[in-house]
Design brief:
The protein contains ten helices and nine strands. The protein is α+β, with helices and mostly antiparallel strands. The protein has three domains: 10-116; 137-194; 201-364, Histidine kinase-like ATPase, C-terminal domain (Heat Shock Protein 90, 2-Layer Sandwich), CATH 3.30.565. It has a five-stranded mixed β-sheet. A two-stranded antiparallel ribbon has the order 1-3. The chain has a two-stranded antiparallel ribbon with strand order 8-9. Strand 8 and strand 9 form a beta hairpin. Helix 8 packs antiparallel against helix 10. The termini are far apart.
Length: 369
């Protein structure tokens, strides 16, 4: 036993005592009385306290001692039934030892995987803390750079040429895009750690869509993409009230519209459809772009997912993830699908907030008369 482990431990004394009791019972009774099954206790005790190698050694010793009782002390002739009983006992010990060895192997594998999971979780927390700190530190210099460029554009530091003004405009747009990405990163990590803080009011989704389309008119014109807002099959627009945080809901619409415009070919149409659907307000953004591969559909709204197609490769994988956070925080659902013959639709639905009459006007959330 001393060769199995380098230091004597209390468990070793218990195993030796158990072996001593079983040996005493085995060798003080006639061979037909089999007490070798009691060695299973020692095998299980070793499995729970010592390593796999010790378990194998204890099992082998128990099997040998069980068989030796056929010949020691050798006072009676060996019967066939006795040999059969001893063989069954040895087989039971072998199976117990084998199962104990397998269980120990599984436990070691599980422990190793658990340690890896903990290490990965810690690494993920460190990475998120690093990104959160980095984005926070990047925001201040970006704001300073944008303000400085605006000062140059206003000629506070002297006259500028038309070429310089165009270059300054490009730099401002670039810095604003970077600032928007930094703010998106900050919002995502804040939402993951603290949850999304909403300030819900009664919002007309149709009016909000109109405002968002107006904000994207210049971008759509620069890419020669046409924008259209309608309500189902009709161009006649009626309010579609929802209880939501207007600013956050507009971010969702902006992300979906920017995604559609950037992935639409020149001369194509991007449609925004806002209409009631049962007890929900359904908002759809449809484009005529490349569409979405079937294997990528389930991953579109994951953080940092960019996919393998040209459609996903153009983005950062943050806008759709943030949109999912916002919609789900409102108790809604968001999804995407491919269109036939080409294109994609990104849609979300929110519960409708029914308006009531107030002073002969439709006002959401007003008290009943």
């Amino acid at each position: 036993m001393r060769r199995l482990v380098p230091h004597w431990q209390p468990i070793h004394g218990q195993i030796v005592a158990l072996f001593g009791v079983v040996i005493l019972l085995e060798y003080s009774t006639p061979p037909p009385y089999v007490f070798g099954y009691l060695y299973i206790g020692a095998v299980l005790l070793v499995r729970g306290q010592l390593g796999r190698r010790a378990t194998r050694w204890v099992t082998a010793i128990a099997m040998v001692l069980t068989l030796l009782n056929l010949f020691i002390p050798g006072l009676e002739p060996i019967a066939t039934v006795t040999i059969a009983n001893r063989s069954i006992t040895v087989l039971a010990l072998a199976v117990t030892g084998w199962l104990s060895d397998r269980i120990q192997g599984y436990e070691q594998a599980i422990t190793h995987q658990y340690a890896q999971i903990l290490a990965q979780a810690q690494l993920a927390r460190m990475r998120e803390d690093f990104v959160s700190t980095l984005t926070h530190d990047l925001k201040t210099p970006l704001l300073g750079a944008i303000e400085t460029l605006h000062a140059f554009d206003a000629q506070r530091f002297g006259a500028i040429t038309p070429a310089q003004r165009r270059a300054i405009a490009v730099m401002i747009r670039s810095h604003q895009t970077t600032l928007q990405l930094v703010e998106t990163l900050m919002d995502i990590y804040r939402n993951d750690s603290e949850g999304l803080c909403l300030q819900p009011t009664d919002v007309d989704a149709m009016a909000l869509a109109e405002e968002t389309i107006m904000a994207f008119t210049a971008l759509a014109a620069s890419r020669q993409v046409h924008l259209r807002l309608h309500q189902g099959e009709s161009d006649f627009r009626q309010p579609c009230w929802v209880r939501a945080d207007g600013l956050q809901l507009q971010r969702v619409l902006s992300n979906l519209m920017a995604n559609a415009i950037h992935h639409s070919p020149r001369g194509s149409l991007v449609e925004v459809v806002v209409c009631p659907r049962g007890e929900d307000c359904l908002v759809q953004v449809l484009d005529q772009g490349q569409g979405i591969a079937a294997e990528e559909m389930a991953h579109l709204f994951e953080r940092f997912y960019q996919g393998h197609s040209d459609r996903q490769a153009k983005g950062t994988g943050l806008g759709l993830y943030l949109s999912r956070q916002i919609v789900e925080a409102h108790g809604g659902t968001i999804w995407a699908a491919s269109r036939q013959p080409r294109g994609a639709v990104f849609a979300f639905r929110l519960p409708i907030q029914s308006p009531v009459m107030d002073n002969d006007r439709m006002m959401p959330g007003a008290p009943h008369r």
